[in-house]
Amino acid sequence: MKRAIRIGQGEGLVLTANRLLDGNIVWRDESGIWRPSIAHAAVLTPDHYESALDSALATAQKDAVVGVYEVVVRPGRPPQPVSVRERIRAFGPTVHPQFATELEA
Amino acid sequence: MNAPVGHYLYNAADRGFLGERIAEFEGQVRRRLEGSLSEEEFKPLRLMNGLYLQLHAYMLRVAIPYGVLDSRQLRKLAHVARRYDRGYGHFTTRQNIQFNWIRLEDTPAILRELADVDMHAIQTSGNCIRNVTSDQFAGAAADELMDPRVHAEILRQWSTLHPEFTFLPRKFKIAISGSPQDRVAARFHDIGILARPSEAGPVFRIFVGGGLGRTPLVGQEMFDSVPEERLLMTLEAILRVYNAYGRRDNIYKARIKILVQALGIDGYRAEVEQELARMNPDHYRLSPETVEAIRARFAAPDLSAPEGASDALARDRRDNPDFARWVRSNTHPHFAPGRIVVTVSVKPAGEIPGDASADQMDALADIADRYSFGEIRVTHLQNLVLAHVAQDRLLALWQELQAIDLGDANHELIGDIVACPGLDYCALANARSIPIAQKLSARFADSTLQEKIGPLRINISGCINACGHHHVGHIGLLGVDKRGEEFFQITLGGRADDLARTGAILGAALPEDDMVDAIARIVDRYLSIRETGEGFLDTLTRLGDAPFKEAAYETV
Amino acid sequence: MKRFDLSSPPRSGHDGIAVVPVDEMEESTRAVRLTPETDVEAIGPALAALDVVVVTFPVFRDGRGFTQARALREYYGFTGEIRAEGHILPDQARFLHLCGVDCVMLPEGSDPTPWQEALTLFSGSYQDRLGLR
Ligand code: SF4
User: Fold this and answer.
1) A90: distance to nearest CA of chain B, Å?
2) Is B149 helix (H, G, I), strand (E, B) or coil?
3) Average pLDDT for residues B348-358, to the nearest whole number?
4) Which pLDDT band, with edges at 50, 70 and 90, does B300 fall under?
């Protein structure tokens, strides 16, 4: 699924998905492993993310993840998604602070 | 076991069916994990078992047929919330409950637990006939012509795993009411049914093609008086035309309302009549014996009340103004002398509309056992109802509700906000609905002020799918996305009753931060310009939206 | 393609028979393939001469074939074979059967086990219990 995405100056991309078994959000790290925290996500440059996305899609069934796609972020520790939606996915629902995602997990 | 008050009592065949359905779902999960079912194939199958993949996890939507629960079922929901979720559940605008933090691998076990109390998640999602909704005051309201629940149960059974209508162009929602006061928004359903008695038995008025979403349309009358025997036959004919001709090329044009619009109600009716002429009525006949057999599985509660119950209530109201205010806003007349219908507000000021904790559910189950024959109903405004309370015990009930934070006097007032889950939970959302609802209800928490403002319905949807029914809110808010940031569009003047209409857009969308103040300014303006006795909609009709527009955009 | 029978005993097979699209029907045609758009009415008069009607599913979510099969059986009393082709899931086997379909054509080498299981999973239907049909 290639989509038209808008990437601003200095922004990068991370790959995300949901785990098939429990539905939890995961982020792809440098070695292609899906991790529960965006803090471990590999930040890709706009020129390089497509091959990473293709390989993530190709192994999705084996890796037991669904809905693989890319998210625009401002690099940092942890990377900050540009959209509200992805910030909520990365850090947890704003209305239940007790369910905030543990970034160092 | 005695039949539960208010809903159908399962028999061995019903229980057997649930077991078979769970076995089927287990097999589907297994095939998905093995890879013989792709995600594309699995998705519609899990949806038809109520399982969505949402923003943070799977969400399981459990069916509450026609909105009626018994206390043992509510306790089971509390148990599911504790054991498999994060200790709470969310009552939806379609009288169901959903859990936001479910694991796929736990789902068969959850479904088995639910089946232990005759519950399921069948057809709470997917392009099939969804769980049927009905009047939350059914079998209790003084204004009712006919209790619609027996026929609602018949519709549930008829639509369950219907061989022909499980892969429709799009979802299909049916509501049925037996009161001239339309409390089910019949004209905003794919099919809305108004039942009434006649000398020849029950007859049904049928509206088709209503709905909210991207193209809000008010349903039109297709038939005025369908006899009971022909009820299912007529529904089959309507659905058959839809299944054959409804659009499948564009998800936004796939609902039956678009087909009704394209053919015209008369054109659609002609198609339906052509089907009916070719169908064999004997094959589709809903016989009186079948209806009676189902009716017999509903208990008839003893609704007598102690002598002097009404006098006791009158005294309690006189002595306690806060209680009296709650009685004014949160009760409805019962047809039985000495009884009263109670709406339990699940909208405490500053909290998430429709969320209930497992502890609250357990406490409510106990309260229902003691005050209302163990029966609880869910309303499409995300509240709960205790339908048969003896008037002399109303004060005690209110005190118990207050103790669990469910005693707010705000039903149908500004604090009774309907909000969809929005961007905090929903994968389709543009904006967060819940925080605005929380801030607004906190701002207008004062119940004296709420009563002064009078009936005012605020509905919030996080996207154009309109699960928060913003089109029919007196004030509606719709979340829109502007480059990844949250904005809201305001509509005014919607209503879902007999004068059903959708609200009109007030102007350009405002950023999320400005929303609460903008709504507060609209309400303040209304208070300053209304004439004596005028409700919000009256003032809006008299003066148009100009004064409200001015107020809303004052600082922009 | 491999034939999987939904009805037992199976209807007599017409495996070798030539199937043509609706707009290529001739007087000698014995088997015709509908698309989901086909109005069954269009072939109504010709049905008496047909042995096989094929309903097709371009994708399993497109349920028009269910209504076509029922119209064939109920409105026209078609007693020949109704066959389903295309993207169909085992989970739909029972629905197809209840709508009057006799068999489905599966890709060569596909495993019939989930299809067999799907047919025996449920002991009855709510529509039956309500006395419909
Ligand atoms: S209205 Fe939109 S955001 Fe709200 S629950 Fe429905 S789909 Fe989700």
Assistant:
1) 9
2) helix
3) 96
4) confident
User: For an interface test with C, which of B248, B256, B271, B282 has the most C Cβ atoms less than 10 Å from its Cβ?
Assistant: B248
Q: Look at residues B217, B38, B188, B49 and name the one whose alpha carbon lies nearest to residue B119.
A: B49
User: Would you say B190 and B174 are in contact if contact means Cβ atoms under 8 Å apart?
Assistant: yes
Nearest Cβ partner for B103 among A22, A61, A85: A22
Q: Cα–chain-centroid distance for residue B267? A: 30
Instruction: Name the pLDDT band for A4 (thresholds 50, 70, 90).
Output: low
Query: Which pLDDT score, from 0 to 100, does residue B453 have?
Result: 96
Q: Which pLDDT value is given to residue B2?
A: 65
Which chain B residues touch A80 with a CB distance below 8 Å? Answer: none
Q: Is the pLDDT of residue B391 over 60?
A: yes
For tokens 């009256």, name the residue. B538
Distance CA B165, CA B61 (A): 20
Q: Do A84 and B86 touch (CB under 8 A)?
A: no
Closest Cα of chain A to B55: distance in Å? 6
**Would you call B57 and A24 a contact, using CB atoms and an 8 Å cutoff?**
yes
Alpha-carbon gap, residue A51 to A37, rounded angstroms: 22
pLDDT at A5 over 90: no
Q: What is the mean pLDDT of residues B547-555?
A: 92
CA atoms within 13 A on the CB side of A91: 15
> What pLDDT shows up at residue B556?
57
Residue A1 in this model has a pLDDT that exceeds 80: no
**Domains along the sequence of chain C with CATH:** 2-129 (3.20.20.70)
Name all chains with 3 or more CB-CB pairs below 8 Å to chain B: A, C
CB A90 within 8 A of CB A38: yes
CB B73 within 8 A of CB B65: no
Q: How far apart are CA B451 and CA B412, in angstroms?
A: 10
Q: Domain coordinates of chain A in residue numbers?
A: 12-93
Q: How far is the CA of B334 from the centre of ligand 1 (A)?
A: 35
- What's the rounded Cα separation, in Å, for the pair B6 and B89? 22
Tell me: the pLDDT tens digits for B181-199?
A: 889 999 999 999 999 999 9
Residues C88, C92, C97, C99, CA torsion sign = negative
Query: CB–CB of B162 and C127 under 8 A?
Result: yes
Q: State CA B503 to chain mean position distance.
A: 19
B residues 110-139 near C, CB within 8 Å? 127
Across the A:B interface, residue pairs with CB atoms under 8 Å apart total 73
Query: Are C125 and B163 a contacting pair at CB < 8 A?
Result: yes
Q: What pLDDT band is residue A3 in, cutting at 50, 70 and 90?
A: low
Q: Which domains does chain B have, with CATH numbers?
A: 12-115 (3.90.480.20), 148-295 (3.30.413.10), 309-403 (3.90.480.20), 418-552 (3.30.413.10)
Binned at pLDDT 50, 70 and 90, residue B471 comes out as very high
Q: Is B168 helix (H, G, I), strand (E, B) or coil?
A: coil
Amino acid making up residue B103: R
Higher pLDDT, C44 or C12: C44
Which pLDDT value is given to residue C11? 78
Q: Respond yes or no on whether ipTM tops 0.95.
A: yes
